[in-house]
Amino acid sequence: MPGQKDAAEEARLPDDVSIVAFGDVHGCFDKLEPLLERIAERAAASPQRRHIAVSVGDLVDRGPDSAPVVDRLAGGLPGCELVVLRGNHEAMMLDFLRSGEGAENWLRNGGLHTLASYGVDLATMAAEGVGADGLRRAFLETLPARHLSFLLARPLSFACGDYFFVHAGVRPGRPLDRQDEEDLLWIRDEFLEWEGSFGKRIVHGHTPVEAATFAPNRINLDTGACFGGPLTAVLIEGAEATIF
After folding, report:
1. At a CB cut-off of 8 Å and minimum separation 6, what does 41 contact?
2. What is the spatial distance between Cα 224 and Cα 25, in angstroms, rounded to a whole number?
3. Element at 143 (helix H, strand E)
4. 89 phi/psi in degrees, rounded to 5
């Protein structure tokens, strides 16, 4: 496409910008907090630069501390612009809250851990035979309005320089400004197997890997924090992208 980079060309950020992007947190507050402290310390050491911290989404589910994770990220990060993207797990949770849609799928994929982190008494509800609708009502009672507002406001993507940040990936052959929400949140194989250019270098999570993937056209940061792996972050400055 005219004006777009080839996948083999060097992606870069503006010279005065530093970005630290990190992968799927999934309720692992114990791994998130030390990372945020390091990001803030680095920003404080060079206040003349524009510092941006980017979460590629999936804050909730599977790990034990979804509520503290949301609360922490809703509070911002000193010295940094904090960009928190929506992941497919936030989308499932919000669908459940709105209408109960997809309840079984969300609960089976870590939603029960999120409910427990917000103080929903799952043991009592199970003993009383409470179904998905009862769990939804209980969740609406315990979820802070601040958290709900924060989650509803999460963008699907963020672009800076030659980089495009998103949760799952993008559909090859489609301009970045015309992507479908479903693909941004859920796409896998069509995106992961594409070796050509997307127009910008994509930074994403969603598909767990043992170690961060650095390809010419994309970087995958989901290293399975909730499955015992690290919470991986990448530092991007100029034409350099390295593990942070």
Report:
1. none
2. 8
3. none
4. -75, -35
* pTM tops 0.90: yes
Q: How would you write the pLDDT of the chain (244 residues) with one tens digit per residue?
A: 333 444 445 899 999 999 999 999 999 999 999 999 999 999 999 999 999 999 999 999 999 999 999 999 999 999 999 999 999 999 999 999 999 989 999 999 999 999 999 999 999 988 998 899 999 999 999 999 999 999 999 999 999 999 999 999 999 999 999 999 999 999 999 999 999 999 999 999 999 999 999 999 999 999 999 999 999 999 999 999 999 9
Domain coordinates in residue numbering, the chain: 18-243
Other CB atoms within 10 A of residue 174 CB = 13
DSSP β-bridge partners for residue 215: 218
231, two tokens: 């919470």
Contact 203, 20 (CB under 8 A): no
Q: Does domain 18-243 match CATH 3.60.21.10?
A: yes
Amino acid at 91: A
**Joined tokens for residue 54:** 């980017």
